[in-house]
Amino acid sequence: MQVAVTGSSGLIGSALVPALRAAGHEVVPIVRDTPSPGEVGWDPAAGTIDSVGLQGTDAIVHLAGESIGKRWTASRKERVLRSRVDGTTLIARTAATLSPRPSVLICASGAGFYGDRGDDVLTEQSSKGTGFLPDVVEAWEAAAQPARDAGIRVVTLRQGIVLSRHGGALAQLLTPFKLMVGGRVGDGKQWWSWVSLEDAVGAYLFALAQPLEGPVNVAAPGVVTNREFTKALGRALGRPTVFPLPVPVVRLAFGHMGEEMLLGGQRTAPEQLEQAGFTFAHPEIDAGIRSALER
């Protein structure tokens, strides 16, 4: 297949692109900078894209979006929302105008859709939660509607924490843990939905080939609490985990972002993937962290 990819240089994209090529697909990166041969230029803020360069595309994987892992000021929250909604709208509308149209649009999404629901097991059938992230994800996924209306199969992959030492939450935790000052966040009882980078990439490849549609939870079946996650990381690094990050410190240092992303969490279940026959390479947290530290 010819697969166009936004966010190809990001955490998932930089692993997905070589995996697509290894599987025999032709990859067309969609880039913000001046495109090189074989790339397509776009400017989501301006609403422009080289649609001619996308002619003949069989599938589009849309990964681009502003990072959510920093303190949420009013301006950052606006950038987080607009980068997802505007970019997805542009991709979906463009895909709908192509002739022939791509057969599938696969969009990154987030487990944050469900909000903080305590111990509830959350499947793709679970309702939207309350908070900034649920509102963002709802608008993000809705922005793909022009592609759905055009008959394109749309898959939204609601990812948990993607484990990699090169980026994301795990990379930020490594320094304090290596310095032996790592520990649980708050009481550690909040559920942290996670997936290894290898399995996240595998889910995108799987969604290309299988008739999945709509929201799909991308999270390992061995979902853990923050306390269990912390202990597993300590075991992998050979470090103690006795320095908790108290709730008042989280609120002071991270504000609203800390409330939703660090003190809250989701106990998501990968129901759609498992029912479709997807096999996780790293279903349990110890194996997932080892894989992340080795890559």
Mean pLDDT: 95
For the largest beta sheet, what order do the strands appear in spatially?
4-3-2-1-5-6-8-12
Query: CATH fold name, please?
Result: Rossmann fold
What summary fits the major beta sheet? 8 strands, mixed
Question: Which class best fits the helix and strand makeup?
Answer: alpha/beta
CA distance, first residue to last residue: 27 Å
Q: Globular, elongated, flat, extended or rod-shaped: what is the shape?
A: globular
Task: Give a brief rundown of this model.
By secondary structure, this protein is α/β, with parallel strands linked by helices. It contains ten helices and 14 strands.
Structure description:
This protein has a single domain, classed as Rossmann fold (3-Layer(aba) Sandwich). Helix content is about 40%, strand content about 20%. It is built from ten helices and 14 strands. The strands form four sheets. It has an eight-stranded mixed β-sheet with strand order 4-3-2-1-5-6-8-12, sandwiched between helices. Helix 2 (about 75-95) packs parallel to helix 3 (about 130-140).
Name its key features.
two-stranded parallel sheet, 295 residues, alpha/beta
Task: Set down the secondary structure blueprint.
Blueprint: E1 2-6, H1 13-22, E2 26-31, E3 40-43, E4 48-49, E5 59-62, H2 74-97, E6 104-110, E7 121-122, H3 132-142, H4 145-149, E8 153-159, E9 161-163, H5 168-178, E10 191-192, E11 194-196, H6 197-209, E12 214-218, E13 224-225, H7 226-237, H8 247-262, E14 267-268, H9 271-275, H10 285-294
Parallel strand pairs: 1-2, 1-5, 2-3, 5-6, 6-8, 7-14, 8-12, 9-11
Antiparallel strand pairs: 3-4, 10-13
